[in-house]
Structures
1.
Amino acid sequence: MTYTRTHMAPEFTGAGARWFKSSYSDGAGNNCVEIADLTDTAYAGVAIRDSKVPQGPALLVGRASFAIFVQGVLPGR
C-alpha cells in the first residue's frame, strides 16, 4: 500500500517517535531532514520532518514508499 499523509510532528511523540537526522544533512544547519521509524506503531510508516521546524508539519509515508525515495536519492544503494 502506498500512502502519504501530513501530520504535525508532535503528534508522533505519543507513538514513541525517535527522530534522527540524515547523515546527508549538511553541518551548517541547512537542508536538515529528520526521520522517525514508526513502522511498528499504529501509524505503520516513516515520518519525515524539517529539523529546523521540529514542531511543524511531518510527512508520513509507507515503508515501501520511503524505500523508493531513498533509492532515488541515494543511487547505488
Note: The chain has a mean pLDDT of 84.
2.
Amino acid sequence: MADRKARAMSVMGTPDSADVVQKLSEDNCWKLLQREQLGRLVVSVGERIDIFPINYLVDQRRLLFRTAEGTKLVELTIDDQVVFEVDHVDTTSGWSVVAHGTAHTLSTSAEIAAADALDLRSWVPTAKYNTVEITPYEMSGRFVRFGDEPEH
C-alpha cells in the first residue's frame, strides 16, 4: 500500500502540508486514471440516470471498455453524453477523477482492430463484443489528505 501512495504522490508532487484538498491538473488526472482499472460510468436517458461499474483501459487520452448488448449500450446509443469517475483511497489519503465526455461504440474495422490489439479484457467471463470509447471534454480531480476534523 505504501508503494501505491508513493506512486500517487509522485504523480502529484509533494503536497503542501496546509492543503488537505488539492486540485489536480488534467495531466495528473490522466496519470492516475492509467493506474486504475475500475471506474463508474454514469449515463442518462430522459429523467432516468444509471451508474455502472466498468473495467476500463486508458489509450491516447481516451477511455475504452467492453460491454454486451443491454441497458448500458442502449442508453449510450440514445444519449452519448456520459460522466466517468474513478477514485482511490488508502489509510491516509485519497483521490477522485471525474471526466465528462461523449461515448460511441467502435464500428469501423480499423477502430475495432486497434482496440482488439490492446490489453482490454472484461473481468466478468461473459461475451462482450462491443467496445465503447469515451472521449472526455472536461476533466477534474482532487487529492485529499485524511486527518482529524478541526475544532469548531
Note: The first strand starts at residue 21 and ends at 23.
